[in-house]
Specification:
The protein is of the alpha/beta class. The chain has a single domain, classed as Nucleotidyltransferase, domain 5, CATH 3.30.420. A five-stranded mixed β-sheet has the order 3-2-1-4-5, with helices on both faces. A hairpin with a 7-residue loop joins strand 2 and strand 3. The chain is globular. The two termini are about 15 Å apart.
Length: about 140
């Protein structure tokens, strides 16, 4: 099946996390500068090959009520395009509060603001991916 890649799409950056095949712990991997679909696609394809990825989980920013708002619609359209370009399945996963929770933890840990900006995207991607794995959504179907 392969590992699983987690993506947290943002206007300027895309956080990336990774869980290796046969494991259940997601790790922050990198941040991809969001300089257009083509450039982002090439970076994702490179990671998919290097890490032997079998599935991609993209965060879906639903509202606190669980509704699909403007941000979620935008991400859904982006993910639909990426699905047509990638050879691995791409699924959407509720990312409610992932970035805010990560930022709160970093503030509590007294991480400087400039350093928080560097790592918040990949930690949000890690949180999205870990929630996906913990839910059992990635478990093999019997």
């Amino acid at each position: 099946m392969g590992g699983v890649l987690g993506l947290d799409f943002g206007e300027k950056r895309i956080g990336v996390a990774f869980v290796a095949e046969g494991t259940t712990i997601a790790f922050p991997l990198t941040v991809i500068p969001n300089k257009g679909r083509g450039q982002v696609l090439q970076e994702i394809k490179k990671i998919v090959l290097e890490k032997k990825i079998g599935k991609i989980v993209a965060g879906l920013p639903v509202t606190m009520k669980g509704e699909v708002g403007i941000a979620a619609e935008k991400i859904t359209k982006e993910v639909e395009w990426f699905r047509t370009q990638l050879a691995v399945p791409v699924v959407l996963w509720d990312e409610r509060l992932s970035s805010k929770e990560v930022e709160r933890v970093l503030i509590e840990a007294d991480v400087r603001r400039d350093r928080r900006k560097e790592i918040i995207d990949q930690l949000a991607a890690q949180r999205i991916l870990q929630n996906f794995i913990d839910s059992g959504a990635n478990a093999p179907k019997e």
